[in-house]
Amino acid sequence: xxxxxxxxxxxxxxxxxxxxxxxxxxxxxxxxxxxxxxxxxxxxxxxxxxxxxxxxxxxxxxxxxxxxxxxxxxxxxxxxxxxxxxxxxxxxxxxxxxxxxxxxxxxxxxxxxxxxxxxxxxxxxxxxxxxxxxxxxxxxxxxxxxxxxxxxxxxxxxxxxxxxxxxxxxxxxxxxxxxxxxxxxxxxxxxxxxxxxxxxxxxxxxxxxxxxxxxxxxxxxxxxxxxxxxxxxxxxxxxxxxxxxxxxxxxxxxxxxxxxxxxxxxxxxxxxxxxxxxxxxxxxxxxxxxxxxxxxxxxxxxxxxxxxxxxxxxxxxxxxxxxxxxxxxxxxxxxxxxxxxxxxxxxxxxxxxxxxxxxxxxxxxxxxxxxxxxxxxxxxxxxxxxxxxxxxxxxxxxxxxxxxxxxxxxxxxxxxxxxxxxxxxxxxxxxxxxxxxxxxxxxxxxxxxxxxxxxxxxxx
Amino acid sequence: xxxxxxxxxxxxxxxxxxxxxxxxxxxxxxxxxxxxxxxxxxxxxxxxxxxxxxxxxxxxxxxxxxxxxxxxxxxxxxxxxxxxxxxxxxx
Amino acid sequence: xxxxxxxxxxxxxxxxxxxxxxxxxxxxxxxxxxxxxxxxxxxxxxxxxxxxxxxxxxxxxxxxxxxxxxxxxxxxxxxxxxxxxxxxxxxxxxxxxxxxxxxxxxxxxxxxxxxxxxxxxxxxxxxxxxxxxxxxxxxxxxxxxxxxxxxxxxxxxxxxxxxxxxxxxxxxxxxxxxxxxxxxxxxxxxxx
Lengths: 460, 91, 192
Prior knowledge:
The complex is a heterotrimer of chains A (460), B (91) and C (192).
Chain A: H1 9-35, H2 46-77, H3 84-107, H4 110-116, H5 134-157, H6 162-178, H7 188-223, H8 227-248, H9 261-271, H10 274-289, H11 298-321, H12 325-331, H13 335-366, H14 373-410, H15 417-423, H16 425-448, H17 454-459
Helix pairs in contact in A: 1-2, 1-16, 2-3, 2-5, 2-13, 3-5, 5-6, 6-7, 7-8, 7-10, 7-13, 8-9, 8-10, 10-11, 11-13, 11-14, 13-14, 14-16
Chain B: H1 9-29, H2 35-56, H3 64-90
Helix pairs in contact in B: 1-2, 2-3
Chain C: H1 16-42, H2 44-51, H3 56-81, H4 85-115, H5 124-155, H6 165-190
């Protein structure tokens, strides 16, 4: 660790992993409810568990991004963080607000939560992924602004690198686009249109900038390749990500009441969204092959390469599968979407945050470039367990999705939704057990933080 | 580019491109259509584009792979446009 | 007289990164062109009829404008290879000037279509016509910005015969903008 203030990243990373565990537990609950409908009913209904599953994902990724920024920005800017105290204060505010929100989801009916939190005054609740009470949303905005101020001041006063600028742009975009969650027009078409400005332009727009910046940062450190080379790649990748991603929003506008040309715009541009992800894969492997040093943190390299490959598969290939309007006409909102969602979020964002943690943690905890060999071995095992699990979860959901689409929509004698769900239950069972293996991988990952190396064991 | 020559090679290329653009325009003005005409227009386009690639972008002096890659791209695009036109005729 | 440094290696002119970008852009345009071509195959009459409303003279004029501007950029690269920054700047300025002419002609064309009540929702042909030409329009602007950046650096003596990758980089991008228009013009304005 080059700067003392980088240490503020530590609680953020811990919180991220803690919430990650919660997310997977709720994933297992809804996975079970898919096949045993009244599991945990009425305590935790499916819709609530699903909301907790997705909201926890977003919140822990945000914790991860913020942690990554607090670690990365001072090192890139070559100066201490503007205000470490502010960073710690924000951490607690965000954590408590997040925890209260989750407790609210679980403890009272959603309508009650809406009433209690004054949703009537400024209605923003009730939309998928944006379920948070309005006051929580305001809290998120305040935290985001203060966070941007903190790292912005650091960057302005320090060395301005491409990585820092791209990261700051991505984070600013994240905050600005979130403001659309407060815009809740009565007209359902407009509502959906702007809803995607948050949802799509986050994950297929500005988050890609954050991801690119983090990956570039880690790869510079791990491979020793010239900064100029990596920055050039970063430029090209983010340019492509923005061109395809922004207009690619159109692939959500096919059937919601927007003009027909969106079917063309959406199809063409989103069909090209795999390009930046493909470039990211080529980029990561090229950099690692051209490495000028052998970094002792092998695990971090594995996570970084895994990010590039899995992001391409999950976001790129599985996104392409159902992005063309004529295909999407049948697959819209089916298990194909769920398959894509799982692999894309894991591949692109879960892995990039873990890559950052894996790289930064030894510096933060041991003041060493890498953890001991045993801890790294465990990390690598957890990588393979989680990654292979997510691949199989994706394949099972894809199988379920293809059957579902055929039986329910394409077939000459379409079957009702629930009948089809029964017929594809086998896939849901397989998905559930694979989810359990994923959880084992996650436990192994957590354990790797506490694993002592042989040398340390001997000395103690 | 040798100064001893009457006209620079790139100027000659420019002139050729201008003339061919004029030809394409006239084909459009004359309202000509049909597979043969479209084939002519597409081959002209392919030739013009490759001139830009070779002489303006300067890929004539680059590794043949890159030139081939761009030629392949242009061939596929122009070729598929021709195929699409043919499909339209038979509809 | 000119033995440019980068030509002997057989590498692509300019920075390799711009070429990755160029290839990606060509792919985008290629997909867009073929989408047009095959959408047309299913609506031949509609496309032929609507195409009659296009201003082919503007299209042809703009083709000439872009070809010429590309030619100016070639001259700018040749100038810097002769270590003549001043001439390089002049040619670049001329190329950017031609870019502006393109934009002006195009804007008249757009204004004409909009005043005729044509929009993206008029029909599939006009959806493609407006989308393709507008998308290309944005690329002309981007290309001009890149050329302008090169121009300013050249003016402050930032390039020389020995070191002018930046000029070649900007030139390559600009030629790409020209290249796609060379296909767009016959495809959208002429073939029917």
